[in-house]
Amino acid sequence: MPHRHQIYLDTNAAILLIEGEGLLRDLMRDLASKASSQPSTILCTSALTISELLVKPLRDGDQKLVEVYRAWGSGLPWLQIIPVESLILDMAAQLRARRNSLKLPDAIHVASAFAVAATHFLTDDHGISPPLENPAVQAGPYFEVCRLNELTLTSLIESLSA
Questions:
Q1: H helices, E strands: number in the chain
Q2: What's 83's DSSP letter?
Q3: CB 28 within 8 A of CB 10
């Protein structure tokens, strides 16, 4: 894995980190802990993620979880929130035009990851799969689509320790 990391968290990765259970949640927490100890912010997500995270707790009336996710949106030192700006929306439209199966919210996530030159895209959404080409550049850089499993998370954690 590259020495420079910029890890994009899709919404399902964020949910696993906060609401998950078991080994995968523990690994996500280890990843966030390792990332927070790095000299610069290496975890990022879209402002769209915050909106997606809030839906279920708002629906369920879970005020504690609403507060947790709103704190994410207000800013955390270990997590960069990427605003959904016109450049990202334009890139998302280009991605959708090239791959009809890519849903608009997923295209916004992918465009957000491209906008910050992410090296890894952490997701369990199988609608987001390689190859994903950045419409803003002729060749690369591309990010690695990483699934939320023990092997992948362990490898990312180890690469942050190196």
A1: 7, 5
A2: P
A3: no
Return the structure tokens found at 93.
């439209």
CA–CA dist 102, 158 (Å, integer):
31
Neighbour order of strands in the sheet with 79-82: 79-82, 43-46, 7-9, 120-122, 144-146
Instruction: Say what the pLDDT of residue 1 is.
Output: 40
> What amino acid is encoded at 47 in this protein?
A
From CA 73, how far away is CA 59, in angstroms rounded?
A: 18
What are the b/e assignments for 28-46, b being 16+ CB within 10 Å? bebbbebbeeeeeebbbbb
Contact 10, 53 (CB under 8 A): no
What are the pLDDT digits (tens) for 12-30? 999 999 999 999 999 999 9
What pTM was estimated for this model as a whole? 0.92
Q: Tell me whether strands 144-146 and 120-122 are parallel, antiparallel or unpaired.
A: parallel
Distance, CA of 74 to CA of 117 (rounded, Å): 22
Contact residues for 44 (Cβ-Cβ < 8 A; gap 6+): 6, 7, 8, 9, 79, 80, 81, 82, 112, 113, 116, 118
